[in-house]
Structure formats: structure tokens, C-alpha cells
Design brief:
With about 180 residues, the chain is α+β, with helices and mostly antiparallel strands. About 55% of the residues lie in helices and about 15% in strands. InterPro entries: HTH_HxlR, WH-like_DNA-bd_sf, WH_DNA-bd_sf.
């Protein structure tokens, strides 16, 4: 999965969770998915439409009611659901799972397998603002999902960021090459 697709996928809070549940075998009807995800109806509906728009989900023809359709994974969605399942399983704690639903958490962790400078992360995540990146890095550092080190080998010291603890497990769950 490339970084642009990952950014689009994680822009809705419940997208990863919905894909992970479908991968785990939860039926594609709205009621079981909604119950399994724990999302509000509005957030859940927005995430479902988002996944359909990305081409990861489709309505299952001939199944479900027109007002309560049944969904299934597309071939592209099957691969995304496998990755989403690995990411969600890397964070079993419900308190930490809320951080996983933040828009930029997963893309930032995907880029920090090796130490990265702030400017490098910002360049790779073209649509992120400096403020959003800074706030995300602070949240990740507070939870110890990312480690901030100061590089003093050059004339002007600069911080680098690298995934750590749960952050490195999430990084390994994401396969950016495929």
C-alpha cells in the first residue's frame, strides 16, 4: 500500500476498524458491523461511504435491503483489510486505540521505521500542515509510540523521529512496498 492511499484510508476514524472487522469475518451488513466497531451511526455511515468511494467496499448485489445494504470487500479491499487487521491487532488496548483513529497517526508511523526529520515527514505527507504534523508527533511521543532524538552531529542540532514500542509494531504491520 502506498502512502497516498494510506493517508486517504485513515482520513476517516473508523475506516481501519471496519476493514479489520470485515477481514475477521463480521458479516457485511450494517447492524453487525456497527455493533462490532462501536462507532456512532453518523461516523460509521461516513466511513462506509468513504470506503466505497475509495473502491475498497462495494454493495453486494442481490443482498440486503435498499435502505440497509450489505457490503463486501473488493479485490483491492481484501488487501487493505488484511493490512488494517494487522494494524488494529497491534493495538489491543482500547485506551490506545483512540490514538489510532486520529487522521495522521498511521501515515506518520508508516514513514518512521528509520529516523526521519520533521521536514522529511512533511514532504512525504504532502497534504499535512506543520501544525497538524507537530501536534501528531507530540501525541505519539507522549504515548511513546515514537521516539524523538536530537542529532548533534552537525553544526545545527535537529530532532529526528523514529517509531518505537507499539509504533514500530504498527509500522511493521504496514507494507508500503505492495
Amino acid at each position: 500500500m502506498d502512502i497516498a492511499t494510506l493517508v486517504k484510508l485513515t482520513s476517516r476514524a473508523w475506516s481501519l476498524n471496519i476493514l479489520a472487522h470485515l477481514h475477521a469475518g463480521v458479516p457485511g451488513r450494517q447492524a453487525p458491523l456497527l455493533a462490532a466497531s462501536g462507532a456512532s451511526r453518523t461516523s460509521f455511515a461516513a466511513s462506509l461511504e468513504h470506503l466505497v468511494g475509495l473502491g475498497l467496499l462495494e454493495r453486494n448485489p442481490g443482498h440486503g435491503h435498499p435502505l440497509r445494504p450489505e457490503f463486501r470487500l473488493t479485490p483491492k479491499g481484501v488487501r487493505a483489510a488484511e493490512i488494517a487487521s494487522r494494524i488494529v491487532n497491534a493495538v489491543p488496548n482500547d485506551n490506545e486505540f483512540s490514538l489510532l483513529r486520529k487522521s495522521w497517526t498511521v501515515p506518520i508511523l508508516a514513514l518512521t521505521a528509520t529516523p526521519q526529520r520533521f521536514s522529511s515527514i512533511r514532504t512525504d505527507l504532502a497534504t499535512i500542515t506543520d501544525r497538524a504534523l507537530s501536534a501528531s508527533l507530540v501525541r505519539l511521543e507522549e504515548r511513546e509510540w515514537i521516539r524523538r532524538d536530537i542529532n548533534t552531529t552537525q553544526r545545527v542540532p535537529f530532532p529526528t523521529y523514529c517509531a518505537a514500542n507499539t509504533g514500530i509494531q504498527i509500522n511493521r504491520a504496514i507494507d508500503l512496498q505492495v
